[in-house]
Amino acid sequence: MLPPPAPCDRRLTMLDTLTARLPSFGRANRNGSRSASASKFVRRRGHLLRNIILIALLLLATFALLGFFAVPPIAKYYLVKTLSEQLERPVAVQEIRFNPFTLRAQVKGFSVQEKRSSQIFVSFDELLVNLEYRSLIRLAPVVKQMMLPPLATWPVAETGS
Length: 161
Description:
The chain has 3 helices and 4 strands; from the N terminus they run H-H-E-E-E-H-E.
């Protein structure tokens, strides 16, 4: 027959009995494995959180890429096309920049020519437009601030007298 356990061994045995009887909510059991239901719960929750974070990062990256690289050429194309048709004059835009996070647009090198001449009717070097975030909700531009530096040129037509 075995001798009775020492007092410290007895505490270990009681601790082992107590932990064996308590449910392990996601924690490892004594032998290192998790219960099946706790393991599935933790795995699902981990995958759900990871998927939410990945989707949020993907949406943020798409928003940034579209805003920085797709909006400027599309805006330039439609600005030149629509203004040329409406004004019935050649319109040129050198560059458009757009920051989707600050909703700030910058138009550089804008010029409108005379109808049947190569003379410039109106031009400006730079136009800054700050939009409000309501623009995203309304899907239409809501302008907060517009700045046109004073170096814009409007040639005066010559009279023939």
